[in-house]
Each structure stands twice: as structure tokens, then as C-alpha cells.
UniProtKB/TrEMBL annotation:
It comes from Rhizobium lusitanum. InterPro entries: AAA+_ATPase (IPR003593), ABC_transporter-like_ATP-bd (IPR003439), ABC_transporter-like_CS (IPR017871), BCAA_Transport_ATP-bd_LivF (IPR052156), P-loop_NTPase (IPR027417). Residues 7-239 form the ABC transporter domain. Keywords: Amino-acid transport, ATP-binding, Nucleotide-binding, Transport. Belongs to the ABC transporter superfamily. The keyword Chaperone does not apply. It comes from the Bacteria. The keyword Transport applies. One of its GO terms (molecular function) is branched-chain amino acid transmembrane transporter activity. PROSITE patterns: ABC_TRANSPORTER_1, ABC_TRANSPORTER_2. CDD domains: ABC_TM1139_LivF_branched (cd03224). This is ATP-binding cassette domain-containing protein.
Length: 240
């Protein structure tokens, strides 16, 4: 018997007025998997994450998380359900300190000592952020801000961590660091759904990958198989 997936999406449609952002997307994510969604600008990737996060009202189809339907009721409901979204663009609260930013990620929790321990562990992994815990987060480098927003999302103790283009605008070495962090998060048992324009990076990190273009899934499968698939590029660029 196959157990049901953590996240299941059937025939999802998202529209903005007359623009169709998603047209019948079907995908699933099993517990413990790292799944990536790759595609060019405007493929519909952010709309997909927005719908899963309950921020975007679908025009049709269904999204089921841990056996329950997701309806758009705002981000807090989503976080309480166990879904954390790291949006594109590293949204730290620039005027707040590093520590305050992290603490905000844990507002849905009441196990304050455990939260403190998790923050301390994060500072062990990224000593620079520990040293700068009382500094304004807006003064951190882009890479440091990315680590911070990922850590902040994790402090909500999600079952599913979703990231929108975590490598965007980062140097390759910094991107390496971000993906090392994702590997550690995965090892802790968190399921990950990552959206990337950077297909090689996504294929390397994910167990399975969906290629999205023009609001439709053009190709899907094990990342290793897709990396070797001669149709991959055509699918990515919407030529098939
Ligand atoms: P990007 O990498 O540029 O964010 P994406 O793959 O995430 O691209 P979406 O942002 O989901 O794609 O956009 C899908 C389509 O929907 C595009 O045609 C985009 O212009 C359109 N779109 C997205 N958000 C809105 C909005 N709020 N109003 C109108 N159209 C939108």
C-alpha cells in the first residue's frame, strides 16, 4: 500500500484577470523528499507557491496538505498547518536585529526554551550571525540575509519548507552555502519544495523535479533522469 503524499495538487488553475498563471498543474511531494520546480521567468512558479501558502486564491483544482484541503486563509493559518514559505528577495526586517528577526519566526510556538536552543544552534553553524545578533539585519550581506530568512522560516517548525529562488542574485559560493544548509535541514527530516530558475542547481539538490512553463508541467521525474534527458532544455524553454 502506498501512503498518501504530504502535499498533493490536482488540476490547479490560477488566474490574474485574463492572465492564466497556472493551467491544470498536478504534482505531489512525499514526506522527506526534496522536490524542485524549475522554469523560466513567468512560468508560474511563484503563483504555485502562493497557492500552496494560501496567499493566492485558485480558480480551480485542489491542494491537499497532510490530508486536509488548503483554502486561502492567510499566511498565519498556513504556518500553523506546518508550511513555511521563504519568498523571493530575502525579506528580512531590515530595521530589526538579527535576533529579533529570528524570534519573529517562532511567534506561533510556546516552547520558548526550545526556541532559544534552536537559535543558539543556528549561531553555532553561522558564527558571523551570532556575533552580529544585535545588529540591524538590513546591514547583513545578501547571503547572510538568505541564511537568516531560511532560519527564521525553520523556527516555525514546518513540516514543509518552501523556498522561492533561494539562489537568485547570490554568488556561486554563497549559493553553495545555502544549498548546504538545505541539505542539513533535509537531514533533520523537513520536507523541502524549492523553486529555481537555476535548473542545474535544482537538479543537483532535489530528488525529483518538475519543469514548469506557461503554467503547465512540461516534464517531471527523478532529477538525475531529467538531467540526462535530451528533452529537458526544450521543456524548460516551453518548446514542447
Ligand atoms: P518569476 O520568476 O518572474 O517570479 P514565476 O515563474 O514565478 O516567474 P509567476 O510570478 O507565478 O511566475 O507569474 C506567472 C504569470 O502570471 C506571469 O505571466 C505573470 O506576469 C503573471 N502574474 C503574476 N502575478 C501577477 C499579478 N499579481 N497580477 C497579474 N499578473 C500576474
Amino acid at each position: 500500500a502506498t501512503s498518501s503524499p504530504l502535499l498533493a495538487i490536482e488540476d490547479l488553475f490560477v488566474r490574474y484577470g485574463r492572465i492564466a498563471a497556472l493551467s491544470g498543474v498536478r504534482l505531489h511531494v512525499d514526506e522527506g523528499e526534496v522536490v524542485s520546480i524549475v522554469g523560466p521567468n513567468g512560468a508560474g512558479k511563484s503563483s504555485l507557491l502562493g497557492a500552496i501558502a494560501g496567499l493566492v486564491q485558485p480558480a480551480g483544482g485542489s491542494i491537499t496538505f497532510a490530508g486536509e484541503p488548503i483554502t486561502p486563509r492567510g499566511l498565519e493559518r498556513t504556518v500553523r498547518r506546518g508550511i513555511a514559505l521563504v519568498p523571493e528577495g530575502r525579506h528580512v526586517f531590515g530595521g530589526l536585529s538579527v535576533l529579533e528577526n529570528l524570534t519573529l519566526g517562532a511567534t506561533v510556538r510556546s516552547d520558548h526554551n526550545q526556541v532559544k536552543a534552536e537559535i543558539a544552534r543556528f549561531f553555532d553553524i553561522f558564527p558571523i550571525l551570532g556575533e552580529r545578533r544585535n545588529e540591524a539585519a538590513g546591514r547583513l550581506s545578501g547571503g547572510e540575509q538568505q541564511m537568516l530568512v531560511i532560519a527564521r522560516a525553520l523556527l516555525a517548525k514546518p513540516r514543509l519548507l518552501m523556498l522561492d529562488e533561494p539562489s537568485l542574485g547570490l554568488a556561486p559560493k554563497v549559493t553553495d552555502r545555502v544549498y548546504e544548509l538545505l541539505a542539513e535541514i533535509r537531514a533533520q527530516g523537513v520536507t523541502i519544495l524549492v523553486v529555481e530558475q537555476n535548473a542545474p542547481r535544482a537538479l543537483k539538490a532535489a530528488d525529483r523535479t518538475y519543469v514548469l512553463n506557461g503554467g503547465r508541467v512540461r516534464l517531471a521525474g527523478a532529477s538525475a533522469a531529467l538531467a540526462a534527458d535530451p528533452d529537458f532544455e526544450a521543456a524548460y524553454f516551453g518548446l514542447r
